[in-house]
Automatic annotation (TrEMBL):
Entry keyword annotation includes Repressor: no
Organism ancestry: Bacteria, Bacillati, Actinomycetota, Actinomycetes, Kitasatosporales
Region annotation Disordered: where it falls in the sequence: 1-44, 369-397
Transmembrane spans: 52-69, 81-99, 111-129, 149-166, 173-189, 195-212, 224-243, 263-288, 295-316, 328-348
GO molecular function list: acyltransferase activity
Pfam families membership: Acyl_transf_3
Domain of life, source organism: Bacteria
Organism field: Streptomyces virens
Name by which UniProt lists this protein: Acyltransferase family protein
Keyword Transmembrane: yes
Amino acid sequence: MTNSQRPYDDRRTPLPPVQSPASGVPSPRVRAGQDVRPAKPGKQRDAFFDNAKYLAIVLVAVGHAWGQILDDRTVETLYRVVYTFHMPAFVLISGYFSRNFDLSPRHVKRLVSGVVVPYVVFEIAYSLFQRYGNDDPDHSVTLLDPTYHLWFLCALFVWRLTTPLWRTVRNPLAVSLAVAVLASVSPLIGDDLDMQRVLQFLPCFVLGLLLRPEHFQLVRRRSVRILSVPVFAAATVVAWWSVPRMRLNWLYHNTAAQEMGAPWWTGPVMVLATLGCSLLLTACFFAWVPRRHMWFTALGAGTIYGYLLHAFLVKAGNYTGWFDQPALAHPLGVLALTVCAAAVVTVLCTKPVQRALRCVVEPKMEWAFRDNPGGSAPDRRPREAAERREPAEKVSA
């Protein structure tokens, strides 16, 4: 401590010796029942976000299972409610944890090893699975047309690359909404890298970049949890009404208005309306996510494994005709399918699966990168010092 930080009188009374509290009496600095064990070194994961990610991946798997039996109006109603918010919630969380992304070598490495490599590996795997598992020899392997759910990795790659832009421009949320609106009336964008979804879901990612911990505190209040019940009930009624009246592509955000045979002006209207509903239901979903450690909290760290793997089973069910079973036309069959989908994706998020597939899902790839990219170590010291001075909330998970 420098002299300028000391009290005016350097003579300070020594502190009293530390005394152990009397038996049965808690220390005045610790509440009774509080865990006083020393914190483990390293960053502590937030149970709220791990719980949210696990519950979201369960909804993804259940939604994909329901998507194979949409002949029942009740199932499609629930499917529409889930599809209104489960991917927006995932995208928003991804944006929240991308707040400090820049084009530094460390972040580029993580982007390549954690997004690009899994996409390439699983895109090839799913293409080969369709060629041989579905007896489709004409199916070609391509990296420009994402298979099924792998569009999210393409989108995450693009979104993170553009993060410095959204952290620089004024009114980034308004700009991203304008981009989404323009995409909805641009049928010439094409299917490469599923750019319609990349652009139309962009506002959810940008909103995540703008959020701070105190914003999530707002939805954790008891009043919000209570209000979310009638909101979800109203959403279910609207979804039931929309089944014969609205195409699902509006919720998928994968098509321009003209490609659906709708007037061009419906694109901006539907994009803004569906994104607004998505934000509302996402807030209601977060309101019911537990804040404490649960039995499934640890699984939140492995949701990428469940996301990448569960579609193999969905596609296998399609290839073998399993979803055509008569039992799935009855409520008990639908319930059994729902429980099965939730159980399977839960297993896929566990530690044994993570250890077995970490080499392709989260490879370290030290061999692929230079040890000292971007110059000598002394050249990077000012930047590293600046990063250490950043507020804690800007540190990625």
